[in-house]
User: Which sequence fits this backbone?
C-alpha cells in the first residue's frame, strides 16, 4: 500500500467548528427554555474558546499512513519534566488555560478548586494523549510533552484563583450568575420562571 497523506487545515476547520458550537449552544438553550442573551454569549465564548484550544494544540494536522512512511518520530515525546522544557511554550500553555475555570463554572457548573484543577488536568491529558496517539499511528507533527501537562494544569489553577477573586465583587458575581447555565433540574425550573 503506498503512502497517503491528508492535511486537516486550521482554515476552514476552525470557523466551521465555531459556527457549529454557536448553533449547538442556541439549540440546547432553546430546547430547555433557557435562551437568553447572557447565556448565549457565555455558550458562544465557551465554544470559541474550545475551538481556539483545538486550533492551538491540533491544527493544522498532517496525517500520513501506508508503507514507506517510516516509523513514528519518537523524538516528539518529551517525557522529562523541566529538563526538556521550552520556556515560551510553558508560558503560552499556561496562558491558554487561564479561561478554563470561568468556562467550567459558567457553562458546565464545575465548581470548587479541586474539581476545576482536576478537570483542567484531564483536558490537558486528553490533548497530550491524542497528540501521542497521532504521532504513533498517523505520523502527527505535534509534541506529546509532560511540560504541557504541567503548564496547562497550572494555567487552570491560576485562572481559577483569579476568577474566585473576581467573584468577591457583587457586581461581577451577579453578571456571572446571569449568564451561567443551570446545573440541575431544580435550577433549570427556577431559571425558566
Assistant:
Amino acid at each position: 500500500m503506498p503512502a497517503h497523506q491528508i492535511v486537516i487545515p486550521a482554515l476552514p476547520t476552525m470557523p466551521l467548528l465555531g459556527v457549529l458550537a454557536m448553533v449547538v449552544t442556541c439549540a440546547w438553550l432553546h430546547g430547555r427554555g433557557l435562551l437568553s442573551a447572557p447565556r448565549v454569549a457565555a455558550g458562544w465564548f465557551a465554544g470559541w474558546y474550545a475551538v481556539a484550544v483545538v486550533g492551538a494544540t491540533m491544527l493544522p494536522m498532517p496525517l500520513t499512513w501506508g508503507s514507506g512512511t517510516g516509523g513514528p518520530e519518537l523524538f516528539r515525546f518529551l517525557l522529562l519534566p523541566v529538563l526538556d522544557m521550552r520556556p515560551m511554550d510553558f508560558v503560552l500553555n499556561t496562558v491558554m488555560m487561564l479561561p478554563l475555570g470561568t468556562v467550567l463554572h459558567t457553562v458546565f457548573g464545575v465548581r470548587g478548586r479541586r474539581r476545576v484543577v482536576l478537570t483542567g488536568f484531564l483536558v490537558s491529558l486528553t490533548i497530550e494523549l491524542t497528540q501521542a496517539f497521532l504521532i504513533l499511528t498517523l505520523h502527527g507533527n505535534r509534541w506529546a510533552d509532560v511540560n504541557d501537562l504541567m503548564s496547562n494544569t497550572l494555567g487552570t489553577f491560576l485562572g481559577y484563583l483569579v476568577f474566585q477573586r473576581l467573584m468577591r465583587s457583587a457586581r461581577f458575581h451577579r453578571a456571572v450568575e446571569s449568564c451561567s447555565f443551570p446545573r440541575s433540574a431544580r435550577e433549570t425550573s427556577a431559571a425558566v420562571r
About this structure: Helices lie at 10-31, 37-58, 87-96, 100-108, 113-138, 146-166, 170-179, 185-192. Residues 32 and 188 are 8 Å apart (CA to CA). The mean pLDDT is 93. The two ends are 62 Å apart (CA to CA).
